[in-house]
Amino acid sequence: MYKRILLKLSGESISADDFPYSAEKLDDLADQIRQIKEMGVQIGIVIGGGNICRGKLFEKLGFDRVQSDYAGMLGTVINSLMLGAKLNQIGIKTTVMSAVQ
Fold first, then answer.
1. Lowest CB count within 10 Å: 38, 52, 71, 87, which one?
2. What distance in Å separates the CA atoms of residue 59 and residue 13, rounded to the nearest whole number?
């Protein structure tokens, strides 16, 4: 068994069909992460922002590439905060980190 893993999640893994977030998906994901942690595995998590924003949408809105990239990075931070809050709620201490100042 691994002692430490990196879990890469798409932003869409926590989204509902018609909304950026699904409470049920967040609950299920947090429970699965809790089960892995209880096996003694340290977990680093990287999550995308595709449930909030997509590059093609920004192109249609006339954003330049830099603005689009910053918006995407902020989407990942929002998702990190959402998942982190859910994990904290079930007793798993989390720290959200980002290069966005």
1. 38
2. 24
